[in-house]
Write a structure and sequence with these properties.
- This protein is mostly helical and about 220 residues long.
- It has two domains: about 1-120, no CATH class; about 120-218, Serine Threonine Protein Phosphatase 5, Tetratricopeptide repeat, CATH 1.25.40.
- The protein has helices at about 5-20, 25-45, 50-75, 80-95, 95-110, 120-140, 145-155, 160-180, 180-195, 200-215.
- It is elongated and about 65 Å long.
- Keywords: Endonuclease, Hydrolase, Nuclease.
């Protein structure tokens, strides 16, 4: 864990970097974060379990918080690869609000994910949120429909494969179903089916349609 003084210095340097670009006086913080990221990526590479990787990311994220906060506060348009790694890590670690915060900034300025992720930023946000929700559903746990809807609104204007957008609509449909919002659930599941006829929601739509008809008949 960073000391308060070090955290403050990193946040200030990140803010300066975002506002002024790659001036010499701000390079030390950026270099320091890139070196830290490289070290932590090596640590993660040595972990095979997806669950344990997520746990490790949760312990690593606080080290990057001052830098990310400074970059976002500075509202800089220059790509920051550290921040883009943290976008994905936050989703993996369950910090969905934090991920959306970075996602808004990244999409505003056209930032791209590091090559290792092999997807556009919007596609990754859609797929990663959908996958996180699906993991929760598989574990019989709830997932916030509001968070998924925020993710959908964030990526709505951006191009991506239809199948990726369908996954997000499907996740929203399931989350709404768990909340008892059956009509809204059907709308999202139908949209998922329009985008991807093989997304596996036909039976769910039929069952929900039957429930809605029974409810309307009293």
């Amino acid at each position: 864990m960073s000391s308060p003084a070090r955290a403050h210095r990193l946040r200030v340097e990140a803010e300066l970097t975002a506002r002024e670009g790659s001036h010499q006086q701000t390079l030390s913080g950026s270099d320091q974060m890139l070196m830290q990221l490289s070290e932590d990526l090596r640590r993660l590479k040595g972990v095979q379990s997806t669950e344990k990787k997520a746990e490790l990311k949760r312990t690593l994220l606080p080290k990057y918080e001052p830098w990310v906060t400074g970059i976002l506060t500075g509202d800089g348009s220059r790509q920051d690869d550290v921040v883009m790694h943290i976008l994905v890590w936050r989703i993996d670690a369950g910090d969905y609000h934090g991920a959306l915060e970075i996602g808004r900034h990244a999409l505003k300025y056209g930032w791209v994910l590091p090559v290792r992720y092999n997807r556009t930023t919007a596609t990754a946000i859609a797929e990663e949120f959908a996958d996180a929700a699906q993991r929760a559903f598989t574990a019989k746990q709830p997932f916030s429909a509001a968070l998924l809807t925020q993710a959908l609104e964030l990526v709505d204007a951006h191009d991506m494969p239809d199948q990726s957008r369908a996954r997000l609509h499907k996740a929203i449909g399931y989350a709404l179903r768990e909340n008892g919002q059956l009509a809204a659930s059907v709308n999202h599941l139908n949209r998922a089916l329009e985008l991807d006829s093989r997304c596996g929601v036909k039976k769910d739509i039929e069952r929900l349609g039957t429930q809605l008809r029974k409810a309307s008949n009293g």
